[in-house]
Every structure is written in structure tokens, then in C-alpha cells.
Amino acid sequence: YFADRNIFCAGRVSKDDIDRVCEATGCRVQSTTSGLVAAHLGTCERFEERQIGGQRFNLFRGCPQAKTCTIVLRGGAEQFIDEVERSLHDSIMVVRRAVKNQSVVAGGGAIEMELSRYLRDAARQIEGKQQLIVTAVAKALEVIPRQLCENAGFDTTDFITQLRARHAQDPDRFRWHGVDIEAEEVADLFAKFVWEPALVKINAISSAVEAACLILSVDETVSSQQSQDMMAGGQPMPGRGR
Predict the structure, then answer these.
(1) How many CB atoms lie within 10 A of CB 122?
(2) Please, are residues 230 and 237 in contact by the beta-carbon 8 Å criterion?
(3) Are 71 and 92 in contact (CB under 8 A)?
(4) What is the pTM of this model?
(5) Among candidate residues 180, 156, 160, the one with its CA nearest the CA of residue 116
(6) DSSP E strands, the chain
(7) Do 105 and 198 meet the contact criterion of CB atoms below 8 Å apart?
(8) Is 228 within 8 Å of 234 (Cβ atoms)?
């Protein structure tokens, strides 16, 4: 029926794809072909069916109400596709956070080194064991720039020493200095537009501190002596009886 009238027809289309086409083109889902009016139809500038790799895709271009786009990921292995999808999703979410929240900080471990310096200075004013706790948190923040150096193949000790010296020497001038992977040096990453949303950093640090406090709050563990004996002897755990 549709082919005789030069109308494209697709079968077994998922509900999510149908909803996206309706939102982009302005059409409405109909259960019958009778009684169609212009208000039920959607429009787009161009429609085509293309072969991409081993699959065929229906492309709607120039949709009047489209606010999104489709990205086709291709690769030789499923693991590679999953990794690319994860990285792309993380990048999109970071940009989304930056658009919704105007407050940003420099990346490349710059904000972590600045917080580490601030906590070390504040720890000197604290008496008692609390000073050790604040110092430990300051040291833990240096893991981020240290890991960046290791991933890039840099000398970790040299870069961390430079970062500590600059942030301690003049905090106002070197506040946004971090690890510049492209130039392979310590540089002002805020001036190079390497930014991260401040909300992401706040949530990450808050979650890490809460997790550490939760682990430290565990003062006693209870274990079954019978289970330990069975594991030591190599005997399997008894199953349920019928």
C-alpha cells in the first residue's frame, strides 16, 4: 500500500525512537490511516535512508522542533564503543553542568593543589590530633594531579614539587596553575580555558570525605567463626534443603 504510493514505511520501530521523531517533526502517533489531517503530520527538510557500516539508518534532517542531535559511534570492538560512549557522556554532562552553573574552576589538578595548600596552612593553626586529619586530607587532594602526571607519562615528583612551590610562593598569582598535558609543563590552565564546573568538584570532594568518614566510623566488625573455618578448609557452604 505505502510502496505503491511512494511512501517510506518502517516496521518494528522502538517506542523511544517513535517519541523522538514525534517531538522533532511535530507529528502525532495514529492507530489508523483513515481520518488523517494536516495537523497529524510532521515535517522535515530532508529524509534519507543511509547505510552506515553494517546497519541502515533513517535520517531526519532539518526538523523544525528538534533540540537534539544523534551521534553514531563506530568501532572495531564492543569494548571500544562502550569506552567511547562513556567518555562522550561524561564530556556532555560536564558541559551541561558548566552551562547550568556559571561558576567554574581550573582543571588539571590546579584547584586540588590550591585546596591542599590552604588546608596545610590551616592545619598549622590547629592543635591536637585534628591537625593530622586536616593534613591527611590535604595530602589526599594531591592524588588528582599526581594521577594526571602518571597517565601522561611525566615525572610525578618533579611536577608535584613545582606545583607545591608555586602555590605556596604566591597563591594569588599561581592559584590556577596545574598540569598542562599538551605543553608538558606547569601552567595557568584558567587562562588556557581548561575549566571544570565548581559544582562537580564540590560534589566529588564532599562524596570522598563522606566515604572516608563512614569507613572511619566503623569501630567493630562481626564475623562468623564457622564460615571462616569452612573457607580455610576448602569446604563449600551448605545449600538449602528441600
Answers:
(1) 13
(2) yes
(3) no
(4) 0.62
(5) 160
(6) 46-52, 55-61, 104-106, 177-180, 185-188, 195-197
(7) yes
(8) no
| Sign of the torsion angle spanned by Cα atoms 106, 203, 70, 24 | negative
* Phi-psi label, residue 9: left if phi above 0, alpha if psi -120 to 50, beta otherwise: beta
What tens-digit pLDDT sequence spans the chain (242 residues)?
A: 777 888 888 888 888 888 888 888 888 888 887 888 888 888 888 888 888 877 888 888 888 888 777 888 888 788 888 999 999 998 888 888 878 888 889 989 999 999 999 999 999 998 888 899 899 999 999 999 999 999 989 888 999 999 999 999 888 888 999 999 888 899 999 999 888 888 888 988 999 999 988 888 877 666 666 665 666 665 555 554 44
Please, are residues 141 and 111 in contact by the beta-carbon 8 Å criterion?
no
User: Residue 181 is which amino acid?
Assistant: I
Q: How far apart, in whole angstroms, are the C-alpha atoms of residue 203 and residue 214?
A: 16
Q: What are phi and psi of 79, to 5 degrees?
A: -65, -35
Cβ contacts of 167 within 8 Å, gap of 6 or more: 113, 114, 116, 117, 174, 175, 177
Neighbours of 95 (CB within 10 A): 11
Q: Is 6 left (phi over 0), alpha (psi -120 to 50) or beta?
A: left
Task: For residue 210, give the C-alpha cell.
Answer: 563522606
Residue type, 50: R
